[in-house]
């Protein structure tokens, strides 16, 4: 089952943690959520707010990965902490969002391995995502997966393949999904939407 992007470790030995900044300057979602948000979704900026950015196979400049939010319920006035937000949910004010925004975080994601599988020789190449994933309101996880058949050196592809995330470090053949390790290639705080050309 897909789960989106899950942080695993820091490429430079730093601390893996979410970020929000502080006060009114942190990451925010509009008081009426413009779309559904799920743990593990790619997000970016729009009009100064955080939005999901997965409607295309290559989303462009990515701020990071959504990992929950805090808000005041519009009806009860209670402060709530959530791992997912249904589309059009209305809060009393903007949502305070927690994002894994460090461009050096290494993530784990499911690769679909559908028509053309990622193999060990593809480490260093870039891949697109399967656009417009559907998350789970039960697990709160994103439905985001890597599109294995797009593996290439194209610099604007959003994810760079770093290796297998399977327990035995193996790679599956086409038709059997698997977990891989990736970095966000088109990171807003890295090189932006232009990304880096993959290694053939």
Describe the structure.
This protein is mainly beta and 200 residues long. The chain has no helices and 14 strands. Strands 1-10-14-13-11-12 form a six-stranded antiparallel beta sheet, with no helix packed on it. Strands 2, 4, 5, 6, 7 and 9 form a six-stranded antiparallel beta sheet that branches. Strands 3-8 form a two-stranded antiparallel sheet. Strand 6 (64-72) and strand 7 (79-82) form a beta hairpin.
The percentage helix is under 10%
Per the principal axes of the C-alpha atoms, what is the gross shape? globular
Number of strands: 14
Question: What is the beta-strand fraction?
Answer: 35-45%
Give the integer mean of the pLDDT values: 96
Order of helices and strands: EEEEEEEEEEEEEE
Name the structural class: mainly beta
> Distance between termini?
30 Å
Q: Rounded to an integer, what's the Rg over CA atoms? A: 17 Å
The main pleated sheet reads as:
6 strands, antiparallel
> Number of helix segments?
0
Model regions low in confidence, pLDDT < 50 over at least 5 residues: none
Strand arrangement, major sheet: 1-10-14-13-11-12
Brief description of this entry?
This protein has 200 residues and is mainly beta. It is 0% helix and 35% strand.
Helix-strand layout with pairing:
Layout: E1 6-10, E2 28-29, E3 37-38, E4 42-46, E5 49-52, E6 64-72, E7 79-82, E8 84-85, E9 95-100, E10 105-111, E11 126-129, E12 146-152, E13 159-164, E14 178-184
Antiparallel strand pairs: 1-10, 2-9, 3-8, 4-5, 4-6, 6-7, 6-9, 10-14, 11-12, 11-13, 13-14
């Amino acid at each position: 089952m897909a789960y989106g992007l899950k942080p695993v470790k820091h490429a430079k030995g730093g601390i893996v943690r979410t970020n929000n900044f502080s006060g009114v300057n942190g990451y925010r979602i509009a008081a009426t959520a413009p779309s559904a948000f799920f743990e593990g979704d790619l997000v970016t900026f729009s009009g100064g707010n955080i939005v999901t950015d997965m409607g295309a196979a290559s989303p462009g400049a990515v701020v990071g990965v959504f990992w929950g939010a805090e808000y005041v319920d519009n009806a009860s006035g209670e402060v709530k902490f959530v791992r997912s937000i249904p589309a059009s949910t209305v809060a009393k004010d903007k949502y305070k969002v927690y994002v894994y925004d460090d461009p050096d975080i290494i993530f784990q994601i499911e690769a679909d391995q559908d028509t053309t599988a990622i193999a060990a020789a593809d480490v260093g190449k870039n891949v697109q995502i399967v656009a417009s994933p559907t998350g789970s309101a039960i697990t709160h996880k994103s439905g985001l997966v890597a599109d294995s058949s797009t593996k290439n050196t194209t610099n604007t592809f959003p994810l760079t393949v770093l290796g297998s995330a399977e327990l035995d470090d193996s790679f599956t053949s086409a038709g059997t999904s698997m977990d891989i390790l990736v970095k966000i290639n088109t990171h807003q705080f890295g090189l932006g939407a232009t990304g880096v050309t993959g290694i053939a």
